[in-house]
TrEMBL record, chain A:
<dbReference type="InterPro" id="IPR001865">
    <property type="entry name" value="Ribosomal_uS2"/>
</dbReference>
<dbReference type="GO" id="GO:0005763">
    <property type="term" value="C:mitochondrial small ribosomal subunit"/>
</dbReference>
<protein>
    <recommendedName>
        <fullName>Small ribosomal subunit protein uS2m</fullName>
    </recommendedName>
</protein>
<keyword id="KW-0175">Coiled coil</keyword>
<keyword id="KW-0689">Ribosomal protein</keyword>
<keyword id="KW-0687">Ribonucleoprotein</keyword>
<dbReference type="GO" id="GO:0006412">
    <property type="term" value="P:translation"/>
</dbReference>
<dbReference type="InterPro" id="IPR023591">
    <property type="entry name" value="Ribosomal_uS2_flav_dom_sf"/>
</dbReference>
<dbReference type="GO" id="GO:0005743">
    <property type="term" value="C:mitochondrial inner membrane"/>
</dbReference>
<dbReference type="InterPro" id="IPR005706">
    <property type="entry name" value="Ribosomal_uS2_bac/mit/plastid"/>
</dbReference>
<comment type="similarity">
    <text>Belongs to the universal ribosomal protein uS2 family.</text>
</comment>
<comment type="function">
    <text>Required for mitoribosome formation and stability, and mitochondrial translation.</text>
</comment>
<dbReference type="Pfam" id="PF00318">
    <property type="entry name" value="Ribosomal_S2"/>
</dbReference>
<keyword id="KW-0496">Mitochondrion</keyword>
<dbReference type="GO" id="GO:0003735">
    <property type="term" value="F:structural constituent of ribosome"/>
</dbReference>
<feature type="coiled-coil region">
    <location>
        <begin position="258"/>
        <end position="285"/>
    </location>
</feature>
Length: 285, 173
């Protein structure tokens, strides 16, 4: 527990069991433990919008089920073009000998010994992944960015900070997910989405958190290069994970998708609050 | 809180769905992502083990690659390329354009003629092309020839040690 918190810029799963636990009727019964950095924010928001607790079934349905009916509710496909991916070298894979055979369906071909990733598939899968991310952010999920590529430690942590989420770019202790109740205490809330900017760790092996997230039934989104194993990742995105233009592009896209999701949620809740005010005014009058 | 940690079996969705079906997890207790996954599933279910009929990956080659190979063999890389500028056109690319233009005109048929004509056309446009100086390939490895071996190499340390031992014995006696 000491290792991830030492560099404390971006908050990691810190456990603070709150009194007066907030339980939502529709979501999992694991209690929401607010991280220390967010306690103040949450308390203030609970004072500002107590109507959250008073929402009835139909309102919750309207909030949660409406966005699922649109194929691209948050318009994530407008965040990038295939040409952007090409200019950021997303299509460039590793040398032929270094590939993982599970990447076979995503590879377009080999150009002079270097695998080239099929950008048509990347566009489709990136759209799916960003759409999922935006929907999760809309539902107020905790998102954890993971990357063990030291070159991008600062970038990933800043991205997480900018969208109000969490990042873990240090050594991954064994039981962070699977032994969380012992390591962090009872009532800890695990992330509901894990985004891997780099699937491999420092010794070019799959990051332990991929398998652990699958074990804990946490969906994952991950950038998989030609030397990665995409199988256990829920929404894999085949693409280059080594060049800085590519990683900066991904960070920007994830950040914008999450911010869009959060903004839409705020907008809809404000809308409902104003509607409720008008109703009470009419009833009072 | 019910869970299933069998990551090698099925997907997260199938496991949670089956927990609900089996009555172990209540529908109201379903995870946050369940509805989103049901509405927008991934293109391929994230199974731990997947089998692919792996055929050889296609090699990406273009007809211009022949021209490129000849260009670089003759001229090498004329100037360092600035890869950050996406709109810059390399000398090789200009050469290929000229080559293809002349090919379409139909004046030349032979590849060698086309090559020379394209080079001339490019030089007329002001691009400087210098032919690469290739080192002549004569002998591969320098092997020592008889009579030219360095005499100091003939000294053997075992002989030196023998001589030193004999000397000490004669000194003793």
């Amino acid at each position: 527990m000491a290792a991830p918190m030492r560099f404390g810029a971006a908050a990691v799963m810190q456990s603070a069991v709150t009194r007066g636990l907030f339980r939502s009727r529709l979501f999992s019964a694991s209690t929401a433990a607010t991280p220390l950095s967010d306690l103040a924010k949450q308390e203030s928001s609970e004072k500002v919008a107590p109507s959250i607790l008073q929402k009835d079934e139909s309102t919750m349905e309207r909030i949660l089920l409406e966005p699922l009916k649109h194929p691209d509710f948050f318009e994530v496909n407008k965040l990038f073009t295939q040409r952007d991916l090409f200019n950021a070298n997303v299509h460039v894979g590793h040398k032929e000998g270094a590939w993982d055979r599970n990447m076979y369906p995503y590879i377009f071909g080999a150009r002079l010994g270097v695998h080239i990733i099929d950008l048509d598939q990347t566009v489709e899968l990136l759209n799916r992944a960003l759409n999922f991310t935006a929907h999760m952010a809309y539902r107020k999920a905790i998102v954890l960015f993971i990357s063990r590529h030291r070159q991008f430690t600062q970038l990933v942590e800043d991205t997480a900070k900018d969208c109000g989420q969490y990042a873990h770019t240090r050594y991954w202790q064994g039981g962070m997910f699977t032994n969380a109740t012992l390591q962090y205490g009872e009532g800890v809330r695990l992330p509901e989405l894990v985004i891997f900017l780099h699937t491999l760790n420092n010794v070019f092996e799959p990051h332990v958190a991929i398998r652990d997230a699958a074990k804990m039934n946490i969906p994952t989104v991950g950038i998989v290069d030609t030397n990665c194993n995409p199988n256990l990742i829920t929404y894999p995105i085949p693409g280059n994970d080594d060049s800085s233009e590519a990683v900066e592009l991904y960070c920007r896209l994830f950040k914008e998708a999450i911010l869009k999701g959060k903004a839409k949620r705020e907008e809809i809740e404000k809308q409902i609050a104003t509607e409720r005010e008008e109703k009470t005014r009419k009833e009072g009058a | 809180m019910a869970g299933s940690r069998l990551e090698k079996f099925g997907t997260i969705f199938t496991r949670v769905r089956d927990l609900i079906r089996g009555g172990v997890m209540k529908h109201e207790e379903r995870p946050l992502w369940y509805d989103v996954y049901a509405a927008f599933p991934p293109r391929d279910p994230p199974l731990a083990e997947r089998n692919y009929d792996i055929k050889p990956v296609r090699r990406i080659l273009y007809p211009e690659d022949k021209i490129r190979a000849d260009f670089y063999k003759t001229y090498g890389t004329p100037r360092p390329m600035d890869l950050t500028d996406l709109d810059s056109v390399s000398e090789c690319q200009k050469f290929i354009l000229k080559y293809q233009q002349l090919e379409r005109l139909g004046k030349y048929q032979e590849e060698a003629e086309l090559f020379e004509a394209a080079a001339r056309a490019l030089q007329r446009d002001g691009v400087i092309l210098k032919k690469r100086q290739l080192k002549p390939v004569t002998e591969t490895v320098d092997e020592p020839r008889e009579g030219q071996r360095d005499p100091t190499l003939n000294i053997r340390i075992s002989d030196m040690i023998k001589e030193a031992l004999q000397k000490t014995e004669t000194e003793k006696s």
